[in-house]
Amino acid sequence: MNKVYPDARSAIAGVKDGMLFCFGGFGMCGLPEKSIEALRESGVKNLTCVSNNAGVDDFGLGLLLQQRQIKKMVSSYVGENELFEKLYLSGELEVEFTPQGTLAEKMRAGGAGIPAFFTPTGVGTKVAEGKEVRQFNGRDYILERSIRSDFSFVKAWKGDKFGNLIFRKTAANFNPLAAMAGNITVAEVEELVEIGELDPNHVHLSGAYVQRIFHGRNYQKRIENLTLTE
Amino acid sequence: MPILTRDQLAKRLAQEVQDGFVVNLGIGIPTLVANHIPKHMFVMLQSENGLLGMGPYPTRENVDPDLVNAGKQTITAVKGAAYFHSADSFAMIRGGHVDVAILGAMEVDQRGDIANWMVPGKLIKGMGGAMDLVAGAKKVIVAMQHRDRAGNSKIMTKCELPLTGVHCIDRVFTDMAVLDLTPEGFLLREVAPGLTVDDVKHASQAPLRVDANVREIALEG
Fold this sequence. Notes:
Number of helices of chain B: 5
CATH architecture of chain A: 3-Layer(aba) Sandwich
CATH topology of chain B: Glutaconate Coenzyme A-transferase
Structural class of chain B: alpha/beta
Largest sheet of chain A: 9 strands, mixed
CATH class of chain A: Alpha Beta
Helix content of chain A: 10-25%
Shape of chain B: globular
Number of domains of chain A: 1
Order of helices and strands of chain A: EHEHEHEHEHEEEEEHEE
Number of helices of chain A: 6
Distance between the termini of chain A: 52 Å
CATH topology of chain A: Glutaconate Coenzyme A-transferase
Oligomer: heterodimer
Strand order of the largest sheet of chain B: 4-3-2-1-5-8-10-11-12-13
Distance between the termini of chain B: 26 Å
Strand content of chain B: 25-35%
Number of strands of chain A: 12
Helix content of chain B: 10-25%
Radius of gyration of chain A: 18 Å
CATH architecture of chain B: 3-Layer(aba) Sandwich
Strand content of chain A: 25-35%
Shape of chain A: globular
């Protein structure tokens, strides 16, 4: 077994035009920034990208938008990106707005072998259009389909060479879920350790969900909205 | 002109929070509610990206890019806080483990429907976690101005904007009044100081029933 890759470029080998990718990250927090840079360099295009947000103009998925590599986004909130607005309004970019909790569950369930699920979120709204509605215990629920990706790109704080991952604070967000949903999951970590060095009690995501791992260096960890106490 | 200030409204809203509550506060007026929760109460604030136990904004030395709230602002965590991933966070929300969600709205109606995520013809930014929150929190409270900037009522017979959720609102707090949602529609419970019941009725597009014990909004205590 060798899951360890020397860098992002080698770890993303096999990505092809037209694929569906899931990404971890919430805004700039916990973003797989090294994999995104490598995807930009690879020039792969016509992508469907499942990610809670769409980055900002010059960071995160904004980098792939700049080069028109993304055909469709599946996201819950995209308000932080001017280029996104432009591409969306001109029809160059397709967007499927998905409630945040539904998006998280689509990835989790996809990774858990559950192809669809009923949720109360979005009943009676635009989100419910065209979806099956069923009543359980007197309440309406809509049927949402789960997601499996060709590749998922996630970022963790620490990982071992089997791919066991530990996340830090709110940088976990969508990362474990995107990892579960990936047919091939590429994890980038700030610290890569030998097998046996992580306390099994502290592992957040088992290496069973991770096919490739690499040590990322010099993280920018941008702050989107610096707010200080007076 | 709003009758109650945003801060007065937040102060009244804080009275809805009880000791031991798990609370999710939206952006805008709801965020201000945190400033008015009495210090002797143990209340956990939820941030839907994956934190229960949100604290104040950090000092410059304590800024951590790995610790942000649902508005992507840098924050801190309080003693007793827990981090979790977004599917766990929304299990908490959707599964009824959040005692109260307080959020803003563009329109609410007498059926308990809410619209707060898109305006046709304007750029859509997305619903974020709002649809999950209104569908799942045990109690859903709306905090907003009674009328929009053009003076139109946001208390509607039927929402005209695309909906965020249906039959989900329990209570509405505005700068003019406190209204409960009942099977018969809006019930006027409290009126801002200096206003009459008729003032509130005139400012509302939907019909209001008036509670037998209607009183002035209490801003002290």
